[in-house]
Amino acid sequence: MPNATFDSPDLTTFARLDELGLVAVGQRLSAERAVLECRLAEEDPWCRACGARSTSRGTITRRLAHQPFGHRPTTLLVRIRRYRCDHCGNRWREDTTAAAPERAKLSRGGMRWALEALVIDHLTIARIAAGLGVAWHTANDAVLAEGQQLLIDDPARFDAVRVIGVDEHLWRHTRRGDKYVTVIIDLTPARDKTGPARLLDMIPGRSKAAFKAWLKAHPKAWKDRIEVVAMDGFTGYKTAAGEALPGAVAVMDPFHVVRLAGDALERLPTTRPAAAPQAQGPQGRPPLQDSPHPPHRHQAADRPPMPAPQQPVRAREARCGRGDLGDLPGDGRRLPRTRPGESQSEDGEAHHRAEQARPGRLARAGQARPNTDETGSSQMRV
After folding, report:
1. What is each CA distance from 123 to 64, 141, 171, in whole angstroms?
2. Which of the 8 DSSP states describes residue 46?
3. Among 106, 150, 149, which residue's Cα sits nearest to residue 128?
4. Compositional bias (Basic and acidic residues) spans (predicted)?
């Protein structure tokens, strides 16, 4: 911008103090807060009683939270002149209602900034209070007062309303006070596809009396222009709309229609699907899930299952048919020792003769000596 024209630095214009009828005369800046000393731009020395000109008798200060600049709270230190009439003795002070309402802690610029931060920037009250450098309740009361004046008290916002929507909203989660409010919305722009829906009002309670009282507070000409009232399934709202708006058609809003349809579908009885035919595994084997020994988690699904663990000897030999082992004892027991004179099986005698014929047995026996019984057979006694 080579041909740009710059004005001299002006703190009053930069801080938008001229809109409040103030002029900056000093400043004190710190990392936490900026304080601007201000005075009224025009003096008012004329007496309210006799009209004579008076002289100033000093000043008093008033602190106002202003819109923040540079991400730090800004405070206006307004010096207000006091006057005393020399003719009639009347006393007064300068009027500051253009800068802030009476007994307010925020300037009009600060209240406008707080409302825009809440509605447009969607900031929380806690963040707005931190930006202004005031308490949470102070910021909340200021936003409510400014919103009531600019949004709710504007009579022109009801002119083009033809379709309204009503529903309840749970906004208080405490034990005391009304927990529900009735929300009234202008659905005319949504029906005509000219813009989004607009909030008209929020009234305490969710009863027929609350909604009917709100409708009766409007003129008859406005109520005659209402064509459609969208609501949920609450009969209180429908009764109030039928009594106060006889020419309007009561319908259910799309949200509750879809919700009721979903609830109806959930209540329908469910039928169990038919069982699928049993699948066959690879090479005609049964599927792995039917095996008494499920496969290992690292085993591939197309591989055959792992073999079963080893079965007891009696069951394995009986399955394979290797000899007659019916005389075997139960699992975990040893074969009984054969005593002299008892009959042995053929296999037992062969085993005994083989043990007797082993070389070196007599030498290892130590004190072994022969013994001849009455039959004449020689036996070894150890």
Report:
1. 21, 15, 17
2. B
3. 106
4. 314-334, 348-358
Length of the chain in terms of residues written:
382
- Average pLDDT for 229-243: 90
Question: Parallel, antiparallel, or unpaired: how do β-strands 74-84 and 55-66 relate?
Answer: antiparallel
The set of residues, in sequence order, having a beta carbon less than 8 Å from that of 96 and lying 6+ positions away, is: 40, 62, 78, 80
Residue 215 corresponds to which tokens in the numbers above?
């409708």
φ, ψ of residue 238 in degrees (nearest 5) = -65, -40
Enclosing H/E stretch for 178: none
DSSP string covering 244-313, please?
H-TTSEEEE-HHHHHHHHHHHHHTSPPPPPPPPPPP--GGGPPPGGGSSSPPPTTS-TTSPPPPPPPPPH
Please indicate whether residue 340 or residue 173 has the higher confidence score (pLDDT).
173
- Give the Cα separation of 349 and 355 in Å (integer): 10
Percentage of the residues of the chain whose pLDDT score is greater than 70: 69
pLDDT at 96: 92
Question: What sign results for the dihedral spanned by CA atoms 138, 139, 140, 144?
Answer: positive
Give the tens place of pLDDT for each residue, 266-297. 888 776 665 555 555 555 555 555 455 555 55
Q: Where are the alpha helices (DSSP H) in 82-124?
A: 108-119
The token pair that represents 147 in the structure block: 């919103």
| Domain boundaries defined on the chain | 12-101, 156-264
Take residue 142 and report the two structure tokens written for it.
């200021």
In whole angstroms, give the CA distance from residue 350 to residue 127: 104
Cβ burial of 36 (10 Å; 0-12, 13-18, 19+) is buried
CATH of domain 156-264: 3.30.420
pLDDT for 136-172, tens place per residue?
999 999 999 888 888 777 778 888 899 999 998 887 7
DSSP 25: E
Mean pLDDT of 206-221: 91
pLDDT (0 to 100) of residue 134: 94
Q: Which amino acid is at 179?
A: K
Closest CA to 102 of 64, 76, 148: 64
pLDDT in tens, 111-124: 999 999 998 999 99
